[in-house]
Amino acid sequence: MTANVSIRSVTQTYGAALALDDVSLEIAAGEFVVLLGPSGCGKTTLLNLIGGFTEPVSGKILIGGKDMGGVSPAQRPTTTVFQDYALFPHMTLADNVGFGLRMRGMAKPVRRGKAEEMLALVGLPGKADRRPHELSGGQRQRVALARALAVSPDVLLLDEPLGALDLKLRRAMQDELKAIQRRVGTTFVHVTHDQEEAMAIADRIVVMSAGKIADIGPPREVYLHPKSLFSAAFMGEINQIPVVNGQTSLGPLVAGSGILLIRPESIGLAGTLALGPCKVTDAAFFGTHVRAHVSPVAAPDLTLTVHLPQTSATVAGQVLTLFATDHVVLSE
Amino acid sequence: MRMLSWLYLALAYAFVFLPVVVLVVFSFQDGRLPVPPFKGFSLQWYDKVLNDSGLMTALWHSALVAFVSSALALVMGFLAAHALARVKLPGSVLMRGLLIAPMTVSYLIIALGLLTTFNQTGVKLSLWTAGIGHVVINLPLCFAIAYAAMGDHQKNAERAARDLGATEMQVLWHISAPMLAPALAAAFFLSVTFSWDEFIIAFLLTRFDVTLPVEIWSMLRSGLSPATNAVGSLVFLVSISAVFGMEIFLFRRPK
Questions:
Q1: Are A88 and A99 in contact (CB under 8 A)?
Q2: What is the pLDDT of residues B115-126, one digit of tens each?
Q3: What DSSP assignment string belongs to A190-223?
Q4: Chain B partners of A79 at a C-beta cutoff of 8 Å?
Q5: Do the Cβ atoms of B160 and A86 come within 8 Å?
Q6: Does B253 touch chain A (CB under 8 A)?
Q7: E-state strands within chain B
Q8: What stretches of A28-166 show up as alpha helix (H) in DSSP?
Q9: What backbone phi and psi angles, to 5 degrees, belong to A316?
């Protein structure tokens, strides 16, 4: 089952602090949306509002077209995968996964069948009679996912579900999470502060900052053509060159005024935007690329970070003629 | 040094357990007085005690009062602890303090207060009134143990249960109470042992039906006898079983 989520002008405060400032967001049915941002940006608050754990100070949240105002978490067509998993330690995995169905009055054998099916879906077949303390962190995460999906929610909320896992496991779980979402077709709303994770799994990324949406769009769009300086910097390293009336310290590069943004890997020996001769101040081999700092001959005070191909034999002191491909100008 | 430590340990245990050992040893006395010299091994006093219907009735009453009052104290203490740990109420610090306060009041004072109250309100003294007294002394204990055991771990699990459709009663029954089972069992067994051994409240708040400590006290008034030792040994056996039960619940469980 699946449903769309409509967030309309939602504001939330905690005492004097403004957690969400007039946020509106439309999430389509079956979409995998990632709320991305640093801690305190309001992403978890938004998730809790959708799940019904708190009520907004103003604004509305609709799920599947129904107003969720005053509807308790139990009554909402949502379930949550919590950051610390929140498994029931005194129950077997089958009872954990079947808990939601039990609360819905489903008979024990039916529950058991459904629980086994869900455990198989998340890659834990035949472990129904284990208890949570016998599992590794990654396996507990899978159980939490199976438990939340067992009741066939319209919308699944994931609160930094991979945060406690080590990097390698996290990358593996991302792929699996994406595959599971494709199979069940449920709307997923996923909170994280890891931009790589966001890009790996999201259909659409919502970048949040200080209670507002800073940017929104598919990963490629948000990464290459950010609509705000915050999202440009949060998504990864980026070079910033001030532009005033079409003039930069490198000469006339682009029209308009603001800040010219270029990703390090968008600078190379060929491209559409000529940056002119640049002197390499240092270079280091990073495996997938060579990372170098360069100063344009025309503007020696400016330092650009550049990712050159792995095969390039760049050394300090060398002068390279560089070009940029994807670039964005944002007015401040 | 090492020898001295062991000697100290032995002396400490001797100091604590010597009275009990003496009590138990002379309950097997083959003679009329529970005093040295030990004249020989006999089970006659146990035979006498186990066939004394007054004592056996008192034993049954004690068990009844202990289990019923402890169960009540546990349920009330658990509910109060859960509420005060989960819900932000105005003056919750004060409420917590008031709930624990009876622990600091002597049993004699509590018994006198209850006796006056029952007399004023015309409630007849019975096992029920003694049971109420035991709830008063054990509720703060159960509350304190349950409250201390509640943490964020349970809180998150409760939240997850609510998210999955559980009502508040279902959360308490399926999640909160089972997750706290070791602490709740400890509170229950402690309450049972306290109620089982309790004399002053039981003495002042019972009349015709009495509990075992009160019955033993009336036996003592007619002088020392190995029979009292035998009863005392049985009481000790029950108490220590409860303590072992508690230890098993507390420490045998996987963390």
A1: yes
A2: 998 888 888 888
A3: EEES-HHHHHHH-SEEEEEETTEEEEEE-HHHHH
A4: 163-164
A5: yes
A6: no
A7: none
A8: 43-51, 93-103, 108-121, 137-150
A9: -60, 140
